[in-house]
């Protein structure tokens, strides 16, 4: 009887261990396949030159540049808004009040909304409503802002990454000891002074982690920019906020599904995927390290 | 508390500055009186507006996320309205024609003609098709007939939006979505839950600290990378393994989507399992149960509502995922339950067709309708996971222990 139990126990434990091994093995296989497929094509020249001959040769510099620019504009919009929302949730909102509950619910819903819906929203709100309104008001109906461009794509992406920033900043604000806050208040500092001088500096690493995670998420997402600003091919870099841009993720997507000769450009596709993966992967790794250090120190 | 009280009454500071202060600030004033008598009042006058505005601005920004949710629904839904009322359709068509001043007029009219042909060929309602027959006067009646045909055909079995006779039957898309969701949840849920159980109940501390970040890194893989991997590697591999005909099909897409859902299910499940009170486990162990019995018969049932929520979140993720299905499923809208045939999901339809559609067209509105469906569904899933399941979990974990 006891022996049977031991064997079943071993099998049960073995199954759980096996599922961990399967998941981690898949991750490793994915990494290895993409690294092997892309490493030959990857070179300094590939990273810094433009696509040539209908994107069958050449590099991916415009895609890298476009992704970086988009992510930059996105962070400028998302990080302050996210940090302020996190401050509200931790410092101002009363925990059980309906406002706090509904803000929290909204943030979680925002994190759940499919990314393609953000794309639709960007099209319906930013491009048609805001852009169309701007064109009517300032450009006399001349088509300037009511079309896909890097600004609308970045703002759409900012909404998508907002919850990432909020969650991460909130988590780090909660690690600021209550005693520090109370000491500051006891010394006569007002609430806003306390937040500015005590809470925010204490949660710097959380804001950093949030920014990194948001950047990594934003760099990898394709669905929201499908019809809000990403372009198939551009001969020049975007010169202003009303220009379209090329993006790494979109480049991978169109090269592997819609280009003329998929097999011929396979090395370029793998290399582009590798670049995208390295980018998001290293950013995530940094965020994980910062976060685990933060958890250990508290 | 003190600063909050001061905020509430900005106009009264000059009348009773001393009596209002209680507690610590009063003590500081007493210390300071020897130097500056007026310092207290001037300080308060400077601070109050900035405090007031800081709080208002912060609260305002916090409401932004609520506003965004509402706006998303409103603006996605707004573009679907023309389907339900012919007048609105005319209106948007006119306004878009105005906005896009160059070159669109020809495209608009040609697409309008297509819709009229659709109405006549469909022969759904004879009187209206007669109205459509008189081609020259299609300005008034045309949009109405086209839209009514659309409403009827939404429940149809064919999705053929770009043709002489456009049909917008959502049924194959819904079946495709459900098929993919089922396949991938069948892979993702057992794997992720068992892995979480191992991490929470069996793994030693050092191992846990490797497993958790490693699986969370999978969440950092962009979906386009997973899609690319599925398209280039997995599809070929599975075709060799099983020997089916279509290389890109629901099975490949489902397995690839499982990779996207595993980290979510794992993380939430693991968190819930570690939150199960240790008294449960200790009681079980003290009664003579072994480690695995405790894990499977105590920890797992105690965390069941949380695991359910985790699976719901995973389903939500799969349901809305676009890039992976767009790349790895073949994108053919078919009415079939065979997992080894191509499918087209709701989200992939939006992703694939929105770029080529004419603004204000019926097709455009139907795509937004699909978006509304997706949004409402994920919203409902999230609401269930949030309120129902969490409430249940709380009562189960806290109500019994306290």
The name of the CATH topology of chain A is MetI-like fold
Assembly classification: heterodimer
The CATH homologous superfamily of chain A: MetI-like
What general outline of chain B do the C-alpha atoms trace?
globular
Strand order of the largest sheet of chain B: 1-2
The helical percent of chain A reads over 70%
- Helix percentage range of chain B: over 70%
Shape call of chain A: globular
Which blocks of ≥5 consecutive residues of chain B have pLDDT under 50? 1-34, 87-145
Order of helices and strands of chain A: HHEEHHHHHHHHH
The mean pLDDT of chain B is 74
Q: Tell me the number of structural domains of chain A.
A: 1
Structural class designation of chain A: mainly alpha
| N- to C-terminal distance of chain B | 30 Å
Order of helices and strands of chain B: HHHHHHHHHEEHHHHHHHHHH
Number of strands of chain B: 2
CATH superfamily of the largest domain in chain B: MetI-like
Task: Provide a compact summary of the structure.
The complex is a heterodimer of chains A (298) and B (402). Chain A has 298 residues and is mostly helical.
Structure description:
The complex is a heterodimer of chains A (298) and B (402). Chain A has helices at residues 2-39, 44-48, 61-92, 98-112, 115-138, 150-174, 178-186, 191-202, 204-220, 248-257, 266-297; strands spanning 51-52, 57-58. Chain A contains 11 helices and 2 strands, in the order H-H-E-E-H-H-H-H-H-H-H-H-H. Chain A has a two-stranded antiparallel sheet. Chain A has 298 residues and is an all-alpha fold. Chain A starts with a helix and ends with a helix. Chain A has a single domain, classed as MetI-like fold. In chain A, helix 3 (61-92) crosses helix 6 (150-174) and helix 5 packs across helix 6 (150-174). In chain A, 73% of the residues lie in helices and 1% in strands. With 402 residues, chain B is an all-alpha fold. Chain B folds into 3 domains: 2-78, no CATH class; 87-153, no CATH class; 171-401, MetI-like (MetI-like fold). Helices cover 75% and strands 1% of the residues of chain B. Chain B is built from 19 helices and 2 strands. Chain B has a two-stranded antiparallel sheet with strand order 1-2. In chain B, a hairpin with a 6-residue loop joins strand 1 and strand 2. Chain B is globular, with a radius of gyration of 30 Å. At the A-B interface, helix 1, helix 3, helix 4, helix 5 and helix 6 of A face helix 1, helix 3, helix 4, helix 10 and helix 11 of B.
